[in-house]
Amino acid sequence: MKNNLLLLLFLFSCSSFAQVSQGTAAIVKPLEKYKYFYILDEKIKEIEEKLDKEASSDELVFLAEKGKNPYIKVTAVKVLTKRSDKRLPAIFKNSFLSKEEITYRTECLSDSYPMSGIFFDTISSVAGSSEEEEKRREEMAITVLNTQPLNKPLLEYTSAALPVNPEIYKKLRILVLETKSPMLLMTLARHKNTDDVELIKSFGSEAYPAIEEFPHPGFLPFIKEHLSDSSGFSFMFALSNFCSDEAKEIVIKAIELDKIRNKEIDCGNGCLSTIYQQIARKKCKLYYPVLANLWLTDKIISFDVLDDYVKNHTREETEKFLLNGFLKPGEAEIIAGNMYDIGSLTHDISDNENMTYDNTLRLVRLLEKIKNISQDVYEKAVRNTLRNVDDLEVDDFISQLKNNTLVLQNKDVLLDRLKNNESAYGTLKIMDGVKMLDNQKLFQEGAVIVVSRKAEFTKFPVWEKEYSYFIQENNIKE
């Protein structure tokens, strides 16, 4: 009996192996060890190309359903999708009850998704127009919704593709009550039924994504009551989707609370940049005066808010506004593209330089805007910037400003920084900027100050090394 059982197992193994040629098995062999897909892994692309070139569609169907792990299955489905194989819908349906997951990783992030959800994304993108793809996603999502037993992770993954209609709404509401799923609640909220306001609120802090989908005024008292949640982006995303005087009052309180929190971590106006962009993401003009006021109190502003201010104020009012902000101590925080708005992140200015990741360029572009409004304010703003810009950015600022004449008119600021800079090492970086001015007299004055602080460079070996290099490179006599 035991021998017969072993024989059956052997025959089954041989039968399974016979479904895939040795060549195809060799191609997918490396995937057997995979525990995750690394986003930048070129090997996956190579495996897909080899499979597309050498494996038959029958072999790929077998691997998609019987592969040794989910990574082999997903790879097989990707290749079948390229071929628009007619069996893909059946493969998707056969995966409905699967509990397998796919993990994707980057250098610092990792996330897992239902394998059947990845099938959904891949198969729905089979060749065709965007309208056809959307219709295909709807049909596939409806199939998931109507399948029993319910695969909750798969339904949550695919629910965003469900159409908005009374039949879908009725089924979703029942499932939300049964499963208590915040993701299904968010999909339900897309139907914007006022009868669901209390149901959505009952989810507490998990209700915000649904409120974002359905910003009904009835949620504002709830949001105000839970202001302590404003440190979370889901709360602020929900709030920013409103645009009313009542919501504006909550925005003001959220900013005040954020400032209190920021004092505990001492991160200056840089931390305010996050909540600023969360509030501005939907471009509600009612919020712009509140955000503009942050320039006067915390020296932070976005180009959108500045442009709106200029449009709605006189030249004299704008000059005073800009100058009062710049005269505040500390570095200015300038926002070009909103990090929560993909469209604005790809915005390029006229000379095709992208400002999103260049602090100095944003600052220089702000100064150029100011110059077009008032030469006097521009000159005072440049002086203030020379006083407050980070040591490491002095040379970059001078280089990008392209106004050595004006910088030289403020040489006293640079010399004062060299004398009183908290970090002796920082003086070397400031001198890099001074050198760009091509003024030998000023450079010599600065070098004398640096040499007078020689003892401070012994604090760290790397400082001492950089000091010696500075002296030798510039032929300075100590």
Task: Describe the structure in brief.
The protein has 29 helices and 5 strands. By secondary structure, it is mainly α.
How many E strands?
A: 5
How many helices? The count is 29
Average pLDDT figure: 92
Largest sheet: 3 strands, mixed
Strand content: under 5%
Rg over alpha carbons: 31 Å
Distance between the termini: 96 Å
Q: Could you say which overall geometry the principal axes of the C-alpha atoms support?
A: globular
Q: Percent range for helical residues?
A: 55-70%
Computed structural class: mainly alpha
Poorly predicted parts: 1-17, 348-352
The spatial strand order of the largest sheet comes to 1-2-3
Notes on the structure:
With 478 residues, the chain is mainly α. It is built from 29 helices and five strands. The strands form two sheets. The chain has a three-stranded mixed sheet with strand order 1-2-3. Strands 4-5 form a two-stranded parallel sheet. α26 runs parallel beside α28 and α27 runs antiparallel to α28. It starts with a helix and ends in a 5-residue tail after the last helix.
Tags for this entry?
single chain, mainly alpha, 29 helices, three-stranded mixed beta sheet, 478 residues, two-stranded parallel ribbon
Could you give the topology of this structure?
Blueprint lengths: L1 H17 L3 H7 L8 E2 L3 H13 L2 H10 L3 H13 L5 H7 L6 E5 L4 E5 H10 L5 H17 L5 H7 L7 H14 L2 H8 L7 H5 L6 H6 L6 H6 L7 H8 L4 H21 L6 H9 L7 H11 L1 E3 H10 L2 H12 L6 E3 L6 H4 L13 H15 L1 H14 L5 H8 L2 H6 L1 H10 L3 H13 L3 H13 L8 H13 L5
Parallel strand pairs: 1-2, 4-5
Antiparallel strand pairs: 2-3
Helix pairs in contact: 2-3, 3-5, 4-5, 5-7, 10-11, 15-17, 16-17, 18-19, 18-20, 20-23, 22-23, 22-24, 24-27, 26-27, 26-28, 27-28
